[in-house]
Amino acid sequence: MAQRNSIVPSSNVTIPEGGRFLIVEARFYEDIGAMLHQGAVRAFTAAGVHVETVTVPGALEIPIALAMHLDRGGVPYDGYIVLGCIIRGETFHFEIVSLESARAVTALAVAHRLCFGNGILTVENEQQAIARADPAQGDKGGDAARAALALYRIKHEKD
């Protein structure tokens, strides 16, 4: 396996104590979802931020739940990540779910200028999903959290 480089740029910007990040996760594949969540929570904990989680049935529900949270008002979160897994099957459904979920969460992130990380896996089989989700291997949940933290730092950098 190739050596991984940190995706979090060095910066003097710190996440404020009490920083709040939201995970919107799909648990269609429970074991894979648990690994993604574990990696994300570990990365957020290392950064010293508070994490809340909303769980939905599948990847197509993720952007809807994210949009609902954005519309709620109140104290906004400092960042958001989405976690889930889409495994290719025998029909065109894989393309619809993977493309539409990615399109919708990206549109929300850009429109609202969110500090955002996308940890929705799109894979050919369960073995690929495990290799990417497992915090001891690919740690894509942790990568999504670190992406949101990196964007937080970029958003709050002083010129």
Structure characterization notes:
The protein has 159 residues and is α/β, with parallel strands linked by helices. The chain has a single domain, classed as Lumazine/riboflavin synthase (Rossmann fold). It is built from 5 helices and 4 strands. It has a 4-stranded parallel β-sheet with strand order 2-1-3-4, sandwiched between helices. α2 runs parallel beside α3. The radius of gyration is 15 Å and the shape is globular.
Features:
single chain, 159 residues, alpha/beta, four-stranded parallel sheet, disordered N terminus
What's the topology here?
Layout: E1 20-26, H1 30-47, E2 50-56, H2 62-71, E3 79-87, H3 93-111, E4 116-123, H4 126-133, H5 140-155
Parallel strand pairs: 1-2, 1-3, 3-4
Helix pairs in contact: 1-5, 2-3
- Give the number of domains: 1
**Rg, alpha carbons:** 15 Å
Overall average pLDDT:
90
> Could you tell me the strand content as a percent range?
15-25%
Annotation field: number of helices? 5
As for the CATH topology, it is Rossmann fold
List unreliable stretches of 5+ residues: 1-13
What is the CATH C-level name?
Alpha Beta
Strand tally: 4
Quick overview of this protein structure:
By secondary structure, the chain is of the alpha/beta class.
